[in-house]
Request: fold
Amino acid sequence: MEDKIIKAKKMNVGIIGFGSIGTEVAKALIKGVENFSLYGITSRSIANAEARIVKLNKNIKIYDLETLINNCQIVIDCAPKEAFRDIATRCIEKGKKLITVSGSGILDNLDLIESPKHNNAQIILATGAILGLDALRAAAESTIHSVKMTTRKPPNALSTAPYVIKNNIELDQLSESRLIFKGSATDGAKAFPANVNVAAAVGLAGIGANKTELEIWADPNLERNTHKVEVKSDSAEFEMSIQNVQTPENPGTGKITGLSVIACLRGLESSLKVGS
Reply:
């Protein structure tokens, strides 16, 4: 009798938000990510989403938020921070896995974190544009003394941030680097919700966002978004730095952010998981 090979059914993945990150994730799923298939997307701007779909020349279906979540096992949140609570609440109620890049959204809604346990749901913060979260999490199992993060970005990556606009900070004519923010990762994530999700991630992984020091610099001499993290703990002292290539349409977002979401997705079902 011949052995029968039963192919496991691929899990449906839904993408919320179809900007630069959502589009990159969709392209990867269309190309092929083992065990997962793209069910569809939802977007607050149907016209923009349709234009992107035409550009991709692929058949991607657009659904309302409720339909998308109901029909997907995995939901990927690439929407603005303001939408996080509604998205997370719906996913928790339906027992879904939610992958998000919104560290800022999580910081603003920490009361939701215990809820997934009761519904077999899970919220996963993708690494995004930073590195070394594994080391930070490991150090946090003992005692971390201090974490300092320094973000330096070209002015075009910071010019539309609410904090810059509210404080009338002029960045267009900069001739040298300028410190525009100094404080905690919590305050930085609120002031720059679309720019320093990485600071929120560092805070969540390590000593806590309130105790994580953050500096943000606008630097006209840079072409890439850069982050440096310095950690002192009783188990190790280490520094991490990264220079991220900007996405053409959204300079504040690094190309690696979308790739980190795809890597996170692969890790959910991989037979080998590298990293803690």
Observations:
- Residues 128 and 257 are 4 Å apart (CA to CA).
- Residues 255-269 form the longest helix (15 residues).
- The mean pLDDT is 90.
- The chain is about 35% helix and 25% strand.
